[in-house]
Amino acid sequence: MIAAFRLELRRGRMLVLWIGLVSVLYAGTITLFYPTILENAAEFEKLMEIYPKELMAAFGIVGSLGDPGTFINSYIFQFLWPLAAAIVAILLATRLAADADTGFLDLPLSTRLPRLRYLSALIVGQIVALAVLSAMTIGAIVAVDLIIEPDFPLDRLSLAGVHALAMGLAIAGPTTLLAVLLLDRGKAGGLAAAILIVMYLLNVLAELSPDMAGLARLSAFRYFNLKPLIDSGTYPIGDTLLYLAVAVGGWILALVAFRRRDLAA
After folding, report:
1. End-to-end distance of the chain based on CA atoms, in angstroms?
2. How many CA within 13 A on the CB side of residue 126?
3. Residue 119: inside a domain, yes or no?
4. Which residues contact 169 (CB under 8 A, 6 or more apart)?
5. Secondary structure of the chain: what % helix, strand, coil (to 5)?
6. pLDDT score recorded for residue 216
7. Percent of the chain residues past pLDDT 90, beyond the cut
8. Residue 206 domain boundaries
9. Domain-embedded: residue 253
10. pLDDT digits 0-9 by tens, 3-12
11. What single DSSP character describes residue 63?
12. What is the 3-state secondary structure (H, E, C) of the chain?
């Protein structure tokens, strides 16, 4: 299992490196502009009055952009993280299906390594990759925060990284299950991406129309609001537990299915 885990880390390091670099550059650059936005918060608020509040809320902008929670949540976590996490989670979680298609999967499974241990190694690799990506994103914000004023609360940013990681895992778990069931990277990845897009649209519709507010409960994005955490330190423990439950549930079902899966089908 250790050998399979090391192999997974080697195969995924370039993906994590490049997506991580993009996240670092984006998060760091956006954070660098915070003092300017803070100084001109009144002008930005007047500008945003042009747009309906429901529309702004649909894109995660609630409150003044001068507030640290609104700024970081809107410009970094609502925009950057779901995209970066989805790319890494889907590509890593569907690697099993790609290996089955190319025949590479026959190589590790031809050894004494049991199927469950092999897939477990891949799952641990997903967790490590997403944890590194989250740490890089938070690290970029903290690094830039050292040279700007005012300071962001480091403890709250760290907790925000934990919740962001949980969301990424909630994508990886079910996607791993799809990869095992379909054994087709294109189908599994495409279906996972389509589900995320539908959930995003459901969340937007729920914000735009009060009559459709109930649809937000079906969206993973509804549980990814870090503004209260950064502003007041209120950690969304229930949302994190929900993400983790989805992730673990997906992985357990994937392990059960992979144990009995006919790889020749």
Report:
1. 25
2. 33
3. yes
4. 89, 126, 127, 130, 243, 244, 247
5. 80, 0, 20
6. 82
7. 58
8. 2-260
9. yes
10. 777 878 888 9
11. S
12. CHHHHHHHHHHHHHHHHHHHHHHHHHHHHHHHCHHHHHHCHHHHHHHHCCCCHHHHHHCCCCCCCCCHHHHHHHHHHCCHHHHHHHHHHHHHHCHHHHHHHHCCCHHHHCCCCCHHHHHHHHHHHHHHHHHHHHHHHHHHHHHHHCCCCCCCCHHHHHHHHHHHHHHHHHHHHHHHHHHHHHCCHHHHHHHHHHHHHHHHHHHHHHHHCHHHHHHHHHCHHHHCCCHHHHHHCCCCHHHHHHHHHHHHHHHHHHHHHHHHCCCCC
pLDDT (tens digit per residue) in 139-194: 999 999 999 887 899 999 999 999 999 999 999 999 999 999 999 999 999 999 99
C-alpha 211/C-alpha 52 separation (Å) is 17
With contact defined as beta carbons under 8 Å apart, do 118 and 109 qualify? yes
**pLDDT exceeds 90 at position 131:** yes
Q: What CA–CA distance (Å, rounded) separates 183 from 116?
A: 16
Residue 236 lies inside a defined structural domain of this protein: yes
- Looking at residue 2, what is its pLDDT? 79
The whole-number average pLDDT for the span 109-132 is 89
| Total-model pTM | 0.91
- How much of the chain, in percent, has pLDDT values that exceed 70? 88
| Residue 265, domain member (yes or no) | no
- The amino acid sitting at 102 is T
pLDDT at 38 over 90: no
- pLDDT, position 48: 66
CB 224 within 8 A of CB 239: yes
The one-letter amino acid code at 93 reads A
How many domains is the chain partitioned into structurally?
1
